[in-house]
Fold each of these.
Amino acid sequence: MSYSGLSLLGHAITGNRHWPAIIAAPDMRATYDIVIVGGGGHGLATAYYLADNHGLSNIAVVEAGWIGGGNTARNTTIVRSDYLLNSSFELKNFALGLWADLSRDLNFNLMYEPRGYVDLAHSDGELEHFTLRANAMRLGGADASILTGDALQARVPELDLSNGKRFPVSGALVQEAGGVVRHDAVAWGFARKASKAGIHILQNCPVTGFDIVKGRLNAVETTRGRISCKQAMISVAGASSHVAGLAGVDLPLNSINVQAFVTEPVKPALDAVVNYNAGLSYVSQTDKGEFVLGGATDGYGSFARRGSFERIEDVLARAMQMFPFLSRLRVMRHWSGTADIPMDGNAIMGPTPIQGLMINGGWGYAGFKATPAVGHQMAELLATGKTPALIAPFALDRFTSGTEQDDAGLGPYPWLH
Ligand SMILES: Cc1cc2nc3c(=O)[nH]c(=O)nc-3n(C[C@H](O)[C@H](O)[C@H](O)COP(=O)(O)OP(=O)(O)OC[C@H]3O[C@@H](n4cnc5c(N)ncnc54)[C@H](O)[C@@H]3O)c2cc1C
């Protein structure tokens, strides 16, 4: 069914008792053309675009847990394209364009809100680097401006710009098209449309192995049995190294914990996403009124989703440097997710050494913003067999050919974000 004001009214009249499930629960087939391993935003977006752009539907999305239980629904919901490296910028900027129309395309309210992303610089040198980045963004067709002093204070009135801080603010790079998107709605919206197109979404069905004969993928093994397929794509975020390892593919990744927090809700007080760069702490306010806070990775490898106290203290202390009023709020929830981070800090997308097996991973704590672009591009690769130009720089073989895509602030230096 299509969501509209009329359908809302119709269901209200009948006591909201007949809303259909948004994702079908079909029996698993023995064979599909394509199996997507991982039902996060990336895997589901790929399924949606395979159906919508390429007319393919003999596809299964195989998810170990439930839809929207992975990093897609653990992130801090920030979308932006303020990257300097061409390859990073172009992919994220393409995604930003897609976010703008996606709610309409999916007939599902993703709550994309371009509130503006305000990236604070803490020295003149850093501000100069931000100016370079802003100019590069403008040349690439994105909006970007540099604000200092009164102009910055007017843009974010709640920001404490007073003197005497340990890390004073010199100015900020502002991207007004940046903002937030409701993260779990992204998983549900893509899943609903893919399911409607006839794609099978199989939840609670972990992939346990790959049947590979003479270097070619034959089938995917799951806890519910074997699925023969022509192609498969691994898109499992924090589990990338483990799942690729089941196929004998060794990925150059570190798996590191990233934490996030929300405070108790209060009235609207902050109309931007603000990022503090002296150590990393970012803050936005949800429509419910809670402040969402995030920061850098824990700095050591772990699959545990607990997180260190040191990082909790660090993120909250820096957030209070920006917005001292936050000290009066209680943190209501705290969680973390496993970020899969390659040493050049950029994603890995494309073929693996196994024929028929593709990988999309290595997104660390920066992949949510790219979700629709990843789905769009990986769908094109799976449907046509040709790597689209936008994702060609992110091929796995860049680590052997020496064409790494170094994004400062990720990889070995996550604190330089
Ligand atoms: C705390 C935190 C904050 C973040 N903040 C931001 C942000 O503000 N902006 C941003 O752009 N990015 C952010 N990120 C990163 C972003 O969340 C991820 O890069 C992105 O969601 C990855 O999408 P995905 O679909 O690949 O991952 P997921 O949603 O994790 O999907 C992968 C799925 O694979 C499944 N899976 C795992 N193993 C198997 C298996 N064996 N078989 C089948 N399925 C399996 C998992 O259950 C999971 O559902 C953040 C991440 C974290 C942890």
Amino acid sequence: MHRIAIIADIHANLFALEAVIDDLERRDVDEVMVAGDLVGRGPQGNAVIHRIQELGWSSVRGNHEDYLLSFYHGDIPDSWRHDEQWAASRWMADELDAAAVTYIESLPFSRRSKLDSTVEVFHGSPNSHSEGIGHWTPQSRLREFLDTIDGSVLVCAHTHRPLTFKIDAGLVVNVGSVGLPFNGDWRAQYAILQGHRDQWEASFHRIPYPRQQFLDLYQSSGFLSQGAITAKLLHYEVRHARPFLVPFLKWVELTDRTPRSEHLADFIEVYDPAESMATFLEKTRRTSQRSSPS
Ligand SMILES: [Fe+2]
């Protein structure tokens, strides 16, 4: 019988990571794996990478690792070098040191557990690190994924919402997010797999951390002011444990605005983080159709 903890989507939040490390010290786990997105969407990317390296926990690459590497190497469209929308990404890429960049560049797309090769960890899906597996994923697609990995347990993250599916003899586990959950509960979330061969089950854990200290660091590090509109939206995400950045970007597109701070107050007035993004966008579409001249 093995116990494997999988943590993911730390998103440059060292306070949440430290709370999970403390919690894991009290639990009897044989291996800890990291399912990507150590960095991005937060001000402590460098510190998080060095802490994971120090612990020797194996990790895979998330979409935010690739994303920050593009900024670090300047492999980005010209407008991203000065547009307000990308100020936070520029700040986060600047914050990384050379050792952190080397580490990120070494991360593989997927990884099998050292203890049991039937457990394979991805950030998104076996198809892409930007494809989220969630309640919307059809069973046929989940079966395809399990066939692809040739194992019985597929572990993933990316959506920041924990869940698990049992498909025939297989198990798909989305472990949720340590640093930036989107399920309305701000606590650091992760999963522990327990079992062996094709007999596995998952338990989910939620750990409080000093969130206000993390929010204060948004201010004191300069991330909130220099990261402009995106950092302000991320600050809302940490407070509400709900998505703000993507809904804002879709809202500005639908209402013919630009993704700039001057539109934040209008967005906050109409956006209800408790409702689904689909409902919010549908409402926005209806309102903008009514207000546009016929
Ligand atoms: Fe993420």
Amino acid sequence: MHFQTLFPFYFSSSMFEDIFDCKYKFFKKYCQKLIPVNAKNPHLIAGGNIATALERTRKAYYNNGLDADSAIEEGFTYLLTEAEDSKDDLKTTERVAFAFKRYFKSFPLEEELKPCELIDGTHAVEYQFELDLGIPHPDYPHRNLIFTGKLDFLGERKDAHNRLKRFVLDEKSTKNVKRKTGTKEVDFDREKEEYLTRGQFIGYHWAAHMLGVKTESTLIRRIPLTKEPEPPYELEVECSDFMIQCWEGSIYGEILELVERYKAYKQYEHKENNDRRCFNPVYNMACDRFASPCTYKVACLIPEGDEVLAMTCKQLIAYPENRIGQELTLSDYINQIERSLNEQHTTENS
Ligand code: SF4
């Protein structure tokens, strides 16, 4: 069994979780683009629903000029009428919808942070960014790799000393709130600890700085989806220039290494086991992250694993490469790229 490959054109913060987890997982997911057929993760569905509802509300309020109540109603109605049910008892669309309403009671839109202005004069609300990493793509070296992502909201407000402070804002729903021992009180210190070195947020600060906004902290608004309804709460986590520089060095180093590994793989593409030699499986806790088995485990257990994956997965282009929201196979995507290259070549030579 031999799968076609294409190195990713786009890198995003969430990809780095897989990259740091296991290089082989990166290869299967982002180079061979093996996506499980009919895979559903209730936590991702519920998290995605909240993100979409917040996006609709903020766009309605900031971009379309709706008043706060009508804007919140847009997100609420989306959750109750359009959003896919996660089939998780604590994360049903109704529970998520009422948690969404509670969120705006604690953090009213009118008292929200003011959105920051970016270098191009637009405002940082649901802003999709693409930043050229200056690293040539190993399959198509005339194109550079891109770091992409969506900044939900960059906001500013004055601190206790009347100094204007800029923030990356992110909402995270949770079923598991950390409590102080023997009480029902939220343990804010332990909650914050979890996010101090979270690369996803450092990556957003890096992007914000590249876009001309000097952010200093992340505001993480936790939305509890616990048995007993409870209000959301806010954690402020500092992000220093030192952390951003270290993160930048780390992701550049990782990407350059992946490019070299991929080139080594392509040199002996059809040699048996060459994929495992160039992108080593880790065989550790990453194989069962979040108590669910890694999609590619079978390929790490038996030599014929790829035959099994060919039946359970499809080679599909997913976000962030595919933004059209329609199914796009790897072979169709490569054909598109080749066609546009040929057209470009013909135009240049005519
Ligand atoms: S099962 Fe483990 S070793 Fe294999 S790809 Fe997944 S994370 Fe890597």
